[in-house]
Amino acid sequence: MTANILDGKSLARSIINDLSRRVSQLTFHKLTPALAVILIGDDPASALYVKNKANACDQCGIKNIIYRYNNNVSQQQIINDIYMLNDDPTIHGILVQLPLPKHIDIPHIIESISPRKDVDGFHPYNVGRLAVGSPTHLLPCTPKGVINLLKYNHISLSGANVVVIGASNIVGKPLSNMLINEGATVSICHKLTTNLSDHTRNADILISATGHAGLICSEMVKRAAVVVDVGISRNADGRIIGDVDYENVRKIASWITPVPGGVGPMTIAMLLENTVCAAERLLN
Ligand code: GUN
Hints:
Blueprint: E1 4-5, H1 8-28, E2 34-40, H2 44-60, E3 63-69, H3 75-87, E4 93-96, H4 106-111, H5 124-131, H6 141-152, E5 161-165, H7 172-181, E6 185-189, H8 196-200, E7 205-208, E8 226-229, E9 233-234, E10 240-241, H9 246-249, E11 255-256, H10 263-280
Parallel strand pairs: 1-11, 2-3, 2-4, 5-6, 5-7, 7-8, 8-11
Antiparallel strand pairs: 9-10
């Protein structure tokens, strides 16, 4: 067996094309969707992610403004600027690129963002709505991208045994809640999980979001499982690789995401969609 490819790159391209049309509709109503991105410090990975997000915004006509700060900026300065953006009617989405320098308290920063402009879906108001299964406009981008990629390829979630590796606030926890809302049976594994493969071998759908290159080898995967790789790290040559031993796992999986070209482009497409949704709500 050779796995089918879950092609996030081409799905993201078509989503961004559709978004361009929605942006044109909004501009017809004199409303240009705008995303404010806050980038603190000089982490090269964060700078690259922000650049990719800005380029994608440009592709579909979303205005984007990057606010750059030194590593030693005060927490209060960031919060004051977020309050200003909350009150600015020309800004529809606010994103603070994570991680942040150690002296800045992430929950404090996230809670200062208006839930209506929280295009990352990290504010406790939006997290809570997801947890209780209420309709929410703003879902975290990577989990939303994973769910859309699976659904687009007609992979059924209802009743599926899904194992998620990684319990972060950005991916693992919100993804698990979305999967539960879709009717999946979800196991969440993390750093302290013992005998990881006892869990993973049971998975109809295995989703790894750890950033540990090569964590998932073929012996850990059930035959014909769907394998989604959310991990991103770099090998010794600087090439981007995921958590999954792709070459071997693709021989036994039914579907697999490549890295790059799987979940990554979907994350960006979902950020753009959230920004357009946040703007559209002003007309509804
Ligand atoms: N850092 C890594 N992933 C993300 C994300 O989805 N949003 C933000 N704001 N920062 C991140």
